Amino acid sequence: MATTMRRPTDPAPPPASSIGPGPVCPVPLEETQRVLLGHGSGGKLSARLLREEFLPHLGNDILAQLGDAAVLRLGDSDIAMSTDTFVVKPLEFPGGDIGSLSIHGTINDLAMMGARPAFVSAGFVLEEGLDLDVLRRVVRSMGRAATEVGVRLVTGDTKVVERGKADGIYINTTGLGLLDGLFRPSPDRARPGDAIIVSGPIGRHGIAIMAARNALGFETEIESDSAPLIAIVDILRNTVGVETRVLRDPTRGGVASSLNEIAAASRVGIELDEESLPVPGEVGAACELLGLDPLYVANEGILLAFIPESAVGRVIPALRAHPLAAAATRIGCVVDQHPGMVVLRTAIGGTRVVDMLPGDQLPRIC
Amino acid sequence: MATTMRRPTDPAPPPASSIGPGPVCPVPLEETQRVLLGHGSGGKLSARLLREEFLPHLGNDILAQLGDAAVLRLGDSDIAMSTDTFVVKPLEFPGGDIGSLSIHGTINDLAMMGARPAFVSAGFVLEEGLDLDVLRRVVRSMGRAATEVGVRLVTGDTKVVERGKADGIYINTTGLGLLDGLFRPSPDRARPGDAIIVSGPIGRHGIAIMAARNALGFETEIESDSAPLIAIVDILRNTVGVETRVLRDPTRGGVASSLNEIAAASRVGIELDEESLPVPGEVGAACELLGLDPLYVANEGILLAFIPESAVGRVIPALRAHPLAAAATRIGCVVDQHPGMVVLRTAIGGTRVVDMLPGDQLPRIC
User: Fold this and answer.
1) Cα of A175 to nearest chain B Cα, Å
2) Full-model pTM
3) Is any Cβ of chain A less than 8 angstroms from the Cβ of B165?
């Protein structure tokens, strides 16, 4: 008998006061004991799930670093390892598909740790009834994306689940890269006086996905920025070198969530200059229409770099010479006030706190 | 508009003659262009998907080896890397759950290549509405399984999909292990004269899963054999050493599929002795009832070892001294007749060919 009863050992649901005023609370009480879409948002709920449910049972000193990738010593080599499962919907969208995204996402996470991506594994979950033509296009795109950056797909696995137990294709990729001894950007290395650079326009991936879901109600030319960031990291490696303190690709949760994580990990304050944020006109228009803030919209082909202020003058031209970073610009700086907090200086001279996204802006963005 | 029309560029469906006599064919024509459950079986359809759709676009010399894990050189280290996505249903079953299984499955694949498992990543796909208590139990079980064998979970990712787009929890684990220079079992190293040993009773995982799905129609005490095989491999390392030619854990597709893969990779014939197969009474009874052959039923805690005949006498007692290999026994040998083929000598003196499973015996077994 498959009944769902609370067993005597189950913890009692939290008192109503802890989650809202009871009868008018929009989240049913019982839901607090269930997984919500927001648990996958990359925002506060995700962080809580990780902190409360995963780390206590799976944690160790390496996992607890919570970088984009883990840094490991195996034999005589320093290795970065990163994993990501892609559940993006739709499977194909302007500027990419789940195949290329699954390569870019994972190799970018390795690159953000300063590693040179070398090998990738792929685990497919396929839904029974999936059109083999779709699978073929996705696999081809995956192969092309790997070849483009010289990464080899070395091992894989395929599972098939019944109709209605997946959504076409889910892909896990896990990547390995080699670290060199000195170039080691890390989210806890930001320090007051650093400048913050973004390598390109923000918000394109998220808005392209929304457009592909027909959520905008109007036509747009915006394509996802999905791209490999290895060459951009190499420019920083060559121009700033070991003084590149932090690198991060602001994917789920957008620029705001990434900066909040860095501010917390480095225990510093961050100040953004609203007027300098490179928000494409169409992204801005779509955000205005949907009531979204571009700072929270996902990106898949830009990075945030924290570097000494003195390096900005030579880094920006070097970045702009590369087609993937033609719009690179300085967007803010690290301060010693308000540690752990991100503050935006608005165009009209005010300031506002840019918090982490509490729940979910858009499920299944990557 | 989400209509599913054939576009002009789609390949035409195959002629009816290639898949059956048309009107009475149980598989609709169109299905040949779609993913079937059998594509995930580990049998012939899986092999075809891999050969026709994945290898041409993703392939390289490492992927083409198709071992349980890839063997990589990274920096100055030889590393084995293996990935597996677990979609087992139900999530909890007698003898284990998806959490412990996701650790055992991946570290066993590393161990089969002779590697010492060291690090594991975890990628979760959670279904909206999942009971957090179930997630907690699974995560705890995963942590315990990793701790038991000294493997560290170093990086992870969690995605949440809408209700009805997954089935509770899917887990991808990707493992890394270090290889030592000499101990390198590989599926293409079997040679005539080798003895084949199995480390324990066969068919327990598959029958335990079927019982947990109430597919048997009777009560059984059978538990999954889900277990780490590192200690068993160490016994072989210490007693047979570099002459351990092949190691394989016969999971999806069972002993029969693994032996067929080895026979093909090594271009040798394999002879099994039916009377020596360690089939527990309850597994045999369940198989008889369901019309299954225990040779095709999945296992998650036994291995097949190909070793020189001369080593059998000292290996069997060493294996039997370990609780996970107390039923270790010699089940057959490698011959130079019928290369690529597995033949069973039956109890009544006949022989029959043990082919690879064409389609699916039981979906979502692991």
Assistant:
1) 9
2) 0.90
3) yes
